[in-house]
Amino acid sequence: MLEFLSYFFGKGESVEFVNFTVAHFMPILIVVGMLFLIYRFREKIRDMKNETVIRYILAFTLIISEMSYYWRLVAMPSLGPNPVDHLPISVCGWVAIFASYMVIGKSQTLFDLSYFWALTGSVFALITPTVITFTGPTRFRYYQFWAEHLVIYIAIFYMVFVHNMRPNKKSFFKAYIGIALLAVIAYFANRLIGPGANYLFMARPEDTPSILDILPPNFALRLLVMVSVITLLFVLVYLPWYMKDKNAKKRISQG
Fold this sequence. Notes:
Blueprint: H1 2-9, H2 22-40, H3 42-46, H4 51-75, H5 91-105, H6 108-127, H7 140-163, H8 169-193, H9 219-254
Helix pairs in contact: 2-7, 4-5, 4-7, 5-6, 5-7, 6-7, 6-8, 6-9
């Protein structure tokens, strides 16, 4: 039993997870299917007597999936847990926390942060999940990663479809300033900790293949490209709502 637990909660010495395989696409496809069902039955869900229970389940899942990442490190000394390597300076980690409180309290501010940060920041983790390269579908870390990152999207679009929450112009700037502040914290953390620290991937490319490998190694150029890409993504994820509002105003003026 102990041998199984050590294996399940540990990690391999060679590559176990490969990008763009069934193990990569299957969790994403499952969640896409769940989002379709939420959208399809949004009115029935909204009118459910115990609809609140669904939101509490989402919040509980997000908190447990985020905290279990640290519980695993504490329980497995063989993983070499080092506090300075696992500070709470990550977009995905904070979005999981924001989204959990957002679904319970229906907070517009937390929705704003979760919506923009998830769709512009954590999306890179879904494209190339480098952090699970050595933990495939037979390991706990594989399921913890997908649970944390994908339930975020379920929570966000659940609030969009069922509770009609949406971003606005203020949301855009609020979330942009927030991620800029997180980037400043990450920069100083990388500088203070020194070699090995790479919060928000600002210091250097990762050791395993990632979409972020296209970023230049020079810090100034790296920062410039990251700011440009994030700004563009912020615009793109807000664009559908902007066009919706614009078309609505146009219909009103013509009516």
